[in-house]
Amino acid sequence: MKILMVSEDLPGEQIGGLGKHVVTLSNALLARGHEVAILGRSFSGAAADGSARQIGFNGRFIPGFDFAHPGWKETQLGVFNPLKRPWFARKIARAIATHAAGFDVVHYHGHLPMVALHVDRALNFIQTRHDQGSECITHLRFRDGVVCAAASARACAGCIHPAPGPLREHVSALAVTRYRRDAAEAFRRHKTIFVSDFLRRQFLRQIPGADLARSRVIHNFVDYSMLANCAQAPRAGQVLLAGRIDAGKGFGEFLAAARGRMPPDARLLVVGDGAERAALEERYASRQVRFLGWRPHREVLALTARSHVCVVPSRWEEPCGTTVLEALALGRPCVALARGGTPELAAYQLHAGQLQLGGSMDRLVAMLCERLARPPAAQPLPPAAALDVIHAVPKILDYYAE
Q: How far is residue 115's CA from residue 131's CA, in Å, rounded to a whole number?
């Protein structure tokens, strides 16, 4: 089968979970004899072959569209522009139309569900929804430090301006209403994968009448054989927090709750970069807490494998956290908040009790301390695991063929 993957997140020097998902799936399909290319962003002077190597993709990368001036001055104006996201969706759709000839399926992984409205109806098009951007224009449903439960499109104006007023509320509401309407129509018209049942339920909660008959839920996955090669003996007392350091990830709240409570011999490693890193490092860095900054993916996996416990303190509702899956695949205990799609990942534990879920940050720290009080288990990894991409590939190929 000839498959064209599409994502505006690729290429990039620091790719997140969505980009990793695309590369892992693409390489797994290539290894099984399928022809796969990735269509992504273009950069002045960037060579396509170099872009493929940069993201770890073993096939052909096609630079297809630029995202110059993506802001459209929304922040300065304090409104969500009703025309912005449809404009970028059409740009991606035009690139798809240019390159789709000869491919059996086009699989889009991105942040603009309405791309599906602008491709040929006859095209075998499928998209994977990786975040809450099906109904939330910021993709997070996280506002002012808490999960957002607002249903009104007018309430969304508060995410772009602290005091929007009637005019800004009206314009932003037009943008959000159109966004949600277009997403619902896109899901009715073309096939859609949600990476967790949580995401599918969240969309139906916001748009109860949406037609999701053509959708499926297929969880995220990892390259288990590659991760198994990273396995190492864990170090007693090493605790790992890895991810983007911003408000939704909960690093600050966890560090505050953990201060003075971890055993004296525990060592907490914070890996990643983001808006809150400098302030948190200034406040919490110590002999016991080290901030390592951004690290290449292989290095993060090695740190995960060597850790006594991994912590995922996300306060926003993670749809299907790759960080959790990687910890599980490497046999490491993981403690996380019981939010979003994370509880669904308990199905992928390599042994009972490997993933522990807490309802509060205080409980998360308590579970961590309980784990640290026991010697780290160094059980050999099984030869196969349900979270391996090889188990997702047949489901996805079957969906392609429908």
A: 16
